[in-house]
From TrEMBL:
It is a multi-pass membrane protein. This is Polyisoprenoid diphosphate/phosphate phosphohydrolase PLPP6. The lineage of its organism: Eukaryota, Metazoa, Chordata, Craniata, Vertebrata. Coiled coil: none annotated. It comes from the Eukaryota.
């Protein structure tokens, strides 16, 4: 009967029943990302497949942490007696601070939770570190790697080691279960691009005389 005829579905329900191709693709990629991240998190805990390698992965984690890099750069800046070295170190300090701010902002906006298999025993965290996207370690590793390759004269083996270090830092974030694969990939791309910003805003005695007057 006419009274028992089904009422038309609301527009939002129709959209749920007929998801867009883009929505299906994004959902599929997210599922693959979570699956791959879980499978690759072989050092996420002591009982994981590669749990015995977890201490080594945590050493690598510290090597890409912001605090050692900030303290080391600041110490070198204070001890340096070369104007050229001070200029490079001051810009590295600027790059590290810019990286911290940018990653914190993106994490606060996206608010993606860390993988469920992550063990929250990270070295020195702040409030936004409960979020996962992007990986700050990966961003910093790519940024520092590109900075070093452009501003330090190194032999080829050392240049290769610097690149390997950046890649290993990124991979270790997934193996420790700290991040998903996409967190690390985006972090590496962001760090690589961030170096271009640092180069564009390069601080020198001409562009920032007040800063150089402090040193």
């Amino acid at each position: 009967s006419g009274s028992s005829a089904a009422a038309p579905l609301p527009e939002e329900d129709c959209m749920k029943l007929n998801p867009s191709f883009l929505g299906i693709a994004l959902s599929s990629l997210l599922a693959i990302d979570l699956w791959a991240s879980k499978r690759l998190g072989v050092c996420a805990g002591e009982g994981s497949a590669w749990g015995s390698a977890r201490p080594l992965m945590k050493v690598i984690e510290v090597s890409g942490h912001g605090i050692p890099w900030l303290l080391g750069t600041f110490y070198g800046l204070c001890q340096s007696d070369s104007s050229a070295a001070r200029e490079v170190l001051l810009n590295l300090l600027f790059a590290l601070l810019l990286d911290l701010v940018l990653v914190a902002v993106v994490k606060g906006v996206v608010k993606r939770r860390r993988p469920t298999h992550n063990k929250m025993d990270m070295f020195v965290t702040i409030s936004v570190d409960r979020y996962s996207f992007p990986s700050g370690h990966a961003t910093r590793a790519a940024l520092v790697c590109r900075f070093i390759l452009h501003h330090l004269v190194l032999a080829v083996p050392l240049r290769v080691l610097v690149v390997l270090w950046a890649l290993i830092v990124g991979i270790s974030r997934i193996m420790l279960g700290r991040h998903n694969v996409t967190d690390v990939l985006f972090g590496l791309l962001l760090g690589y691009a961030l170096y271009s910003v640092v180069e564009y805003c390069w601080l020198s005695p001409l562009s920032a005389p007040a800063l150089f007057a402090l040193w």
